[in-house]
Design goal:
Layout lengths: L2 H21 L5 H18 L6 H7 L2 H8 L6 H12 L10
Helix pairs in contact: 1-2, 1-5, 4-5
């Protein structure tokens, strides 16, 4: 994973989640997912806050949501959520490209 790829999947997943919020307004999990991805985008990518793995697990449950609600091996959306979760505490150690 690279920083460039991480930023791409964050932005793609934000847009994908927005479309799910419109299609399925009563499915509250998409609001939770959207809020957490936006928080990661703002704090990790834009503000440059470095979180430890423990801090990430306390702050976000995105990885758990992905595993419990999506097939992370075969579902692209679930894979993106899992990648975003794991990348949030490794972001600053990733190569740029």
């Amino acid at each position: 994973m690279t920083k460039k790829y991480y930023k791409e999947i964050v932005n793609e997943t934000i847009n994908e989640t927005k479309s799910y919020l419109i299609k399925f307004p009563d499915v509250t999990i998409y609001r939770v997912i959207y809020n957490q991805i936006m928080d990661i985008k703002i704090n990790v990518i834009e503000k440059g806050i470095v979180f430890t793995q423990d801090e990430v697990f306390k702050r976000y449950n995105l990885g758990a949501i992905a595993i419990k609600n999506f097939d992370v091996e075969f579902n692209e959306y679930g894979q993106k959520l899992s990648d975003i979760s794991g990348g949030s505490y490794r972001y600053w150690g990733l190569p740029d490209e």
